[in-house]
Design a protein that fits this description.
Layout lengths: L5 E2 L3 E5 L5 H10 L14 H9 L10 E7 L5 E11 L4 E8 L9 H16 L4 E7 L3 H9 L3 E12 L2 E11 H16 L6
Parallel strand pairs: 5-6
Antiparallel strand pairs: 1-2, 2-3, 3-4, 4-5, 6-8, 7-8
Length: 196
């Protein structure tokens, strides 16, 4: 593992590095699931490099972002972040992205998100987090439910794509919600498989 901040069973979080920009830009350009990147404007490696290079220019950053890497081979598989951090009121918005379709549905995203929530609640002592999901992205909405988020509202007609306005679904989570969901997830991970 290289420069781990938090370590899970199969993945770990490390700071994003400028060298991650090429893979992230390539994944954005190759994304086939139109619900994943709603605007479908591929990012250039230079833009991603600039974003990463300037993440922590401020003493109290508005964004904290991590690379998600597999422990088995240190391969970058995604990113998780806290956006729009309000250090006074203890709030932020969470985001996550698994770069490659073959890594989705394997539990990596849930494990990475639990590590991010641990960082937010236990290290930064944030009070409540929210997450927004573009309405057609049912996979992400379902994942948030498994992670302990609760529905918190809807922003009507938020984004235009292919001539159709779509809503943005809002979710929130407190530390207590996260602990209950994390404990249930850990119990399910350690439960013996039931054969039929």
């Amino acid at each position: 593992m290289r420069n781990p901040v938090l370590v899970g069973e199969r993945v770990y979080l490390r700071p994003l590095e400028v060298s991650d920009a090429e893979a992230m830009a390539r994944a954005s350009a190759e994304e086939a699931d139109t619900a994943m990147l709603r605007l479908r404007v591929p990012e250039s490696p230079l833009h991603v490099e600039s974003y990463i290079a300037h993440l922590y220019d401020d003493r109290w950053p508005e964004v904290v972002a991590f690379a998600v890497c597999r422990r088995a081979d240190d391969r970058l598989i995604g990113s998780v972040d806290l956006d729009d951090i309000d250090w006074v009121n203890g709030t932020a918005e969470t985001g996550s992205w698994l770069l490659w379709a073959e890594d989705r549905g394997q539990g990596y995203g849930t494990e990475a998100k639990h590590l991010l929530l641990e960082y937010a609640f236990d290290h930064l002592h944030l009070h409540v987090l929210l997450s927004a999901v573009w309405e057609p992205n049912a996979r992400s909405a379902a994942a948030l439910g498994k992670q302990g988020y609760r529905p918190a509202g809807r922003m009507k007609w938020h984004d235009l794509k292919d001539g159709v306005y779509r809503d943005m679904l809002l979710f929130d989570i407190t530390r207590a919600d996260w602990l209950a969901a994390r404990d249930a997830w850990l119990a399910a991970q350690s439960a013996p498989a039931v054969s039929k």
